[in-house]
Specification:
By secondary structure, the protein is mostly beta strands. Helix content is about 0%, strand content about 30%.
């Protein structure tokens, strides 16, 4: 019997990781993740001189769009 020479496939090349693209900041909260809104009270919903903060409804607090 004669042994046939089998050719080995070359080792796979390692790829360098691509730099992670940074998503742009959210337009609604300007990247903070929080929005402020005026407090309204009473039956006629009048505004008082107070504000409250909440999570941004567009980015859910992540700060990225």
């Amino acid at each position: 019997m004669t042994a046939q020479a089998t050719k080995k496939s070359p080792a796979p090349r390692r790829r360098s990781p691509k730099p992670a693209s940074v998503p742009p900041p959210c337009d609604t909260c300007t990247g903070t993740g929080e929005t402020t809104t005026a407090v309204r009270v009473g039956r006629k919903r009048r505004q008082i001189d107070a504000t409250q903060t909440a999570l941004c409804p567009d980015c859910f607090g992540t700060g990225t769009a």
